[in-house]
TrEMBL record:
Record domain Endoplasmic reticulum vesicle transporter N-terminal: where: 8-97
Keywords, alphabetical: Membrane, Transmembrane, Transmembrane helix
Listed Pfam families: COPIIcoated_ERV (PF07970), ERGIC_N (PF13850)
Chief place of localization: membrane
Classification lineage: Eukaryota, Viridiplantae, Streptophyta, Embryophyta, Tracheophyta
Localization (cell): Membrane
Signal peptide extent: none
Species: Juglans regia (English walnut)
Transmembrane segments: 21-44, 347-370
Domain of life: Eukaryota
Residue stretches making up the Endoplasmic reticulum vesicle transporter C-terminal domain: 149-366
Name of the protein described by the UniProt record: Endoplasmic reticulum-Golgi intermediate compartment protein 3-like
GO CC terms: membrane
Length: 380
């Protein structure tokens, strides 16, 4: 047994020195104090990092199929009246949504940016005692109203009872409705007068689009869209000017829900119209993202990158479209963000490294200082 204990004593890596041989110096005390303060500072720095969450990022292939994409937008047009501003969306699957009004709110603003009126999109038709019938006469007693579509009917039973229905019928035909004064429904609803009353105003439009999760586009244009030979055009009313000021500010544009650390590069972007007419285009690459917080809660969202381009109107082309266009494509790569703490063993390893490292370096410095002092004393 004594032999075993003797061998264990030989393995002692910390040999003890009798206190009678200790030599304490002022420089050693100063180095010890500095080392202790430095240890405390680094310890609390590591503790703060340990308590703070870090985000681990990974790139994986997006194998999900189908689904929808939520587009949140808030855009201000200082020089386009709300009555002339429309929103359209389409995608490569062939799905089209023209003059979108669901979940869309427009705010009329004056030249100083003050809100004049907040309303859901659409003008609405007031009740009229005797509106004009399709046969040219006025509505009589017990007679059901059926307004004329002014040549755009697809059958004898079609009726257009409001200005909006006439415009929709013309859009389906691919015709431009250029003489609004001749449309009885538009006159009795005060459509033309309403637009004239909004001259010099701007419009803030905000809302949510829910589209297929495929490549597509949406745009804000001046007028109401229609299609002619698979080419998208706009129903530019007769009382509009030839040039359209599409100066705009994107207050918000996101694809999906917000999560901590998300940056939308178009938020707060402003573009001032300088060239006469034309279309401003944004080409967006949408990257699916999944964020998981420290509690395990998951948020499905998207990030995006963007490039910009202004396409001026062709001088000899009468069908040039003024507006702001957003073309988006879906990336096949998905980014995952996961919040987590530094493992406790890593934390303990760093603490031990701090204590051991500072203690060793301080010992080396103290040894050099002590031997230097002894050399100076011998020379004296």
């Amino acid at each position: 047994m004594d032999n075993v204990l003797h061998k264990l004593r030989k393995l002692d890596a910390y040999p003890k020195v009798n206190e009678d041989f200790y030599s304490r110096t002022f420089s050693g005390g100063l180095i010890t104090l500095v080392s202790f303060v430095l240890m405390l500072f680094l310890f609390f720095s590591e503790l703060r990092l340990f308590l703070h969450t870090v985000s681990e990022t990974k790139l994986v292939v997006d194998t999900s199929r189908g689904g929808t994409l939520h587009i949140n937008f808030d855009v201000t047009f200082p020089a386009v009246p709300c009555s002339l501003l429309s929103l359209d969306a389409m995608d490569i699957s062939g799905e089209q949504h023209l003059d979108i009004r669901h979940d869309i709110v427009k705010k009329r603003i004056d030249a100083h940016g003050n809100v004049i009126e907040v309303r859901q999109d659409g003008i609405g038709a007031p009740k009229v005692e005797k509106p004009l019938q399709r046969h040219g006469g006025r509505l009589e007693h017990n007679e059901e109203y059926c307004g004329s579509c002014y040549g755009s009917e697809t059958s004898d039973d079609d009726c257009c009872n409001s200005c909006e229905e006439v415009r929709e019928a013309y859009r389906k035909k691919g015709w431009a409705l250029t003489n609004m004064d001749m449309i009885d429904q538009c006159k009795r609803e005060g459509f033309i007068q309403k637009i004239k009353n909004e001259e010099g105003e701007g419009c803030n439009i905000n809302g949510v689009l829910e589209v297929n999760k495929v490549a597509g586009s949406f745009h804000f244009g001046t007028g109401k869209s229609f299609h002619d030979s698979n080419v998208q055009l706009h129903n530019l009313l007769a009382f509009q000017d030839d040039n359209y000021n599409i100066t705009h500010r994107i207050n918000k544009l996101s694809f999906g829900h917000y999560f901590p650390g998300l940056i939308n590069p178009l938020d707060g972007v402003q573009w001032v119209h300088e060239n006469p007419n034309g279309a401003y285009q944004y080409f967006i690459k949408v990257v699916p993202a999944i964020f998981t917080d420290i509690r395990g809660r998951t948020i499905q969202s998207n990030q995006y990158s963007v490039t910009e381009h202004f396409r001026s109107a062709d001088p000899g082309r009468s069908r040039s479209l003024a507006g702001v266009f957003f073309f988006y494509d879906i990336s096949p790569v998905k980014v995952t963000f996961k919040e987590e703490h530094i493992p406790f063993l890593h934390f303990m390893t760093h603490i031990c490294a701090i204590i051991g490292g500072i203690f060793t370096v301080a010992g080396i410095i103290d040894s050099f200082v002590y031997h230097g002092q002894r050399v100076v004393k011998k020379k004296m």
